[in-house]
Amino acid sequence: MSLQTTGIHHITAFARNPQENVDFYAGVLGLKLVKKTINFDAPEVYHLYFGNEAGSPGTIITFFPWPESRKGRIGGGQVGITTFAVPVGALGFWEERLASFRIDTSKAERFGETFLQFSDHEGMRLELVERDEGAPSQWTFGGIPADKAIKGFGGAVLFSTNAAKTMEVLEQVLGLTKSAEDAGYVRYVASGDSGNVIDIPGSSMEWGAGGAGTVHHIAWRAADFAEHEQWQQAVAGHGYQPTGIIDRQYFNAIYFRESGGILFEIATDPPGFANDEPADALGQQLMLPAWLEPKRALIEANLLPIEVREPEVKGQ
């Protein structure tokens, strides 16, 4: 039987000011900062992870906030819209909450679902959709009750420079199932219950440009390390050129760029974010890999201080 991912593991994007990033995703959206570390390839830049109470796969959005980053342009070769799932009946709450922070919203319909669409402080496109599927979040913050809190990813909308090729990868490489077509979109579904619905415009798009407010890559789930090695072989067997297996401390990763220009990662579910700090203290301290620990003082001196704080409601 061919491999099948159960859905999205995480999505990683570019940002600029790290405190503004924390204020939006932890403060406004109420996600938990589950890991505060650095970009292992560029230790002068934070790598911040937000998700549910445990940072479970399928809930994790991560950022490289670099104050000197250029402004990006959303377009082909990217995740165009990141979709979060909320409990059924919660969309009205979120429409009012976002309005209280003077965040403009609009509604869109696809495949019989209503999406509340908006952009973050950098211009990155986001949307909320009500879904029964997926475990409810146990994390509450900033006046968001648990029965309204974001559960994790609903999925994503992929913007491709070669839509036919990207759809081929979704189906033939990642093992998603084509489920429907509607209003110019094609929907693919993975077997999991979160981060499992991928919509893609049927028409190819012009290239975007990476930078603040855009997604760097989307990562798909591998159940364990053994399956991860199989994924590396399977991706290569389909004519792509995956990287070697890279230890990211909280998961192992391989990367490849599919023919529509989107950078795909396949990441392992284990070992998770309690790998280097207690589960009840996630995100409280700056965590460094062992090889960078001797440089902690220098790294900390070069990073802007950040804190998770209650959001300031701006009113209508």
Automatic annotation (TrEMBL):
InterPro entries registered for this protein in UniProt: Extradiol_RC_dioxygenase, Glyas_Bleomycin-R_OHBP_Dase, Glyas_Fos-R_dOase_dom, VOC_core
PROSITE patterns noted in UniProt: VOC
Domain VOC stretches: 7-131, 152-269
Keyword annotations of the record: Dioxygenase, Oxidoreductase
Gene3D superfamilies: 2,3-Dihydroxybiphenyl 1,2-Dioxygenase, domain 1
Gene Ontology MF, one: dioxygenase activity
The protein, known as: Ring-cleaving dioxygenase MhqO
Organism expressing this protein natively: Paenibacillus nasutitermitis
